[in-house]
């Protein structure tokens, strides 16, 4: 595995209407690495994902992917480079079939996707003709992930995929994400469910009020006074 980072954020800052959402965010990610991004509600986790995927652009700082600055590129250009994401609320086309959803994503990115392999990965083999609207919440999350996989990502941004799922579903998703990372795909996983995150990685970044207050292992984070205060003793 290369030791060059696939992703590097340097002094990234973002505000909305004068409200500073992220300040001086710095971190790196190596190929095939899974990084957990945690923090209280409103601490800026999804904003980090939005800046990397191109939904928003930072006011300051740089985002380097695979050696090149990407912070001014459109989301579409970033998908073509190999960055994609799943959403807190799945964004499948519910009137389309499972297969059509994956085909559209692959077409959008120009990637020659192995659709049967993706269906197998996401546990929807044999359901390719089913309308997305007929899927369970868990299956829609898996389809959302399948749509991201269809674009051939090198970096996958996973935003609170565990919310609302039962323990068996969580174990299934954790196993799938680990299999994906083992193929060399890097991952940032935003999550409130620490037990779920612990199955995926020990390396986490903790955000509080838009600043990184901790970087290290999940175990050490749980004993860090600033992290404990951020979660239990003060405002995000
Ligand atoms: N488009 C936007 N316009 C204005 N404010 C925004 C926008 N997006 C995010 N914010 C604000 O930025 C702050 C950080 O939000 P963000 O969604 O990144 O936090 P989060 O850590 O992902 O929260 P949660 O865990 O609740 O999903 C919040 O105060 C939010 O209201």
TrEMBL record:
Record carries keyword Zinc: no
Cellular-component GO terms for this entry: plasma membrane
Nucleotide-binding as UniProt keyword: yes
Every ABC transporter domain range: 7-234
Residues in coiled coil: none
Pfam families listed in its UniProt record: ABC_tran
Membrane-spanning intervals of the chain: none
Domain of life: Bacteria
InterPro entries: AAA+_ATPase (IPR003593), ABC_AA/LPS_Transport (IPR051120), ABC_transporter-like_ATP-bd (IPR003439), P-loop_NTPase (IPR027417)
Keywords recorded for this protein, A-Z: ATP-binding, Nucleotide-binding, Transport
Listed SUPFAM superfamilies: P-loop containing nucleoside triphosphate hydrolases
MF term (GO), any: ATP hydrolysis activity
Protein name (Swiss-Prot/TrEMBL): ABC transporter ATP-binding protein
